[in-house]
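Sanity check

After download, print the first record. It should look like this:
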Amino acid sequence: MKTFNGIMLDKEEGSVIIGSGSHLGEVYAELRKKGLEVTGRGRARWAWEGGLSYLPEIHGFVADEVANFEVILAFHYVV
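Expected structure tokens:
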């Protein structure tokens, strides 16, 4: 999974692309360098389920912050 550990910031879109192999510590550190924070609880599963962030009164549901999920299956199918 290390080959999927990219963290890319798209300033025009106001979004971040986080590779599935990224460790949360790396993600937090990289985003802090750019003056950003992570809203969610750190796992895609909570976002898929519509999970709450640590400060739901301020940031709302984690799922509200997700623009897209992309899954690549073993046979190179993108779903």
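If your output differs, re-run the checksum step. Summary of this record's structure: The first strand starts at residue 7 and ends at 10.
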